[in-house]
Design brief:
Elements: H1 3-33, H2 38-47, H3 51-62, H4 67-78, H5 81-87, H6 89-92, H7 98-104, H8 108-116, H9 125-153, H10 163-179, H11 184-199, H12 201-204, H13 206-223, H14 225-228
């Protein structure tokens, strides 16, 4: 790993560090509460590395869900990554074997950074992107292990702690809204989801509603992909975050 790329990526990933320590600790606490110690937390975060998926995994483990239920729920909750992958095709081009890890490590927070962060002058962009992904993964593993250890040693009431993931999603959405001038994807996602929740949620349930709404969002974004592509607002320009 290029040290220059790591040094450049670390300041960019500090917000994710703060978030991943928090929600990672929350995950570790939840996992330990149902009887799985820090070793399980470590390997789940190392090999699964899906924040919302791991939160769901705690519930699935606790209720001894069937393999079919696990597969379906995991597919539904991670279907949004199809959109992420499509938008990263150019950035991951030419990364060689590292592309496999980049695909695996494309979480919501890492995607947000890769979509907006620019490599400093003198730093190879591909090394910079890889360093961001690697650091974010390390933060998540660290947070989950800390949470599991703390849960085993301290009598902590974790009621409501699963809201930490929802709170982080809200922060990411606000940051992306501020970083881009075009808000059509965000408006589209919200409008389509609410529409199908009202129309289909009542008759078919939320699982079917979620899959259909995500499919429609992906289709519309693919149709308008060329018109929607843009770089984040440059610092100092109107609409750019200060």
């Amino acid at each position: 790993m290029d040290r220059k790329a790591l040094a450049a990526a670390f300041p960019v990933t500090v917000p994710v560090l703060m978030g991943y320590l928090s929600i990672g600790i929350a995950f570790g606490l939840m996992l330990e509460r149902i009887g799985y110690n820090f070793i399980w937390a470590f390997f789940m975060s190392l090999t699964i590395y899906a924040g919302s998926g791991q939160y769901l995994g705690v519930s699935l483990l606790e209720t001894a869900a069937t393999l079919g239920t696990v597969a379906l729920m995991t597919f539904l909750i991670n279907f949004r990554h199809l959109v992420y992958g499509l938008s990263m095709l150019e950035k991951f081009r030419g990364m060689g074997i590292r592309k496999l890890y980049m695909i695996f490590s494309l979480t919501d927070e890492t995607y947000a950074l890769l979509a907006s962060a620019q490599a400093p002058v003198g730093v190879n962009p591909k090394d910079f992107y890889f360093a961001i992904a690697l650091l974010d993964h390390a933060y998540w593993i660290l947070g989950s292990v800390i949470g599991a250890v703390a849960g085993a040693l301290l009598p902590i009431d974790i009621t409501g702690i699963d809201f930490a993931m929802t709170a982080l999603f809200v922060v990411i959405a606000v940051d992306q809204w501020k970083a881009y001038k075009k808000h059509f994807p965000a408006v589209l996602g919200g409008a389509v989801t609410v529409l199908f929740l009202i129309v289909l949620g009542y008759f078919f349930g939320q699982q079917q509603m979620l899959l259909i709404s995500l499919g429609v969002i992906v289709l519309v974004l693919l149709i308008f992909r060329d018109k929607l592509e843009e770089t984040p607002a440059a610092e100092g320009e109107e609409g750019a975050p200060c």
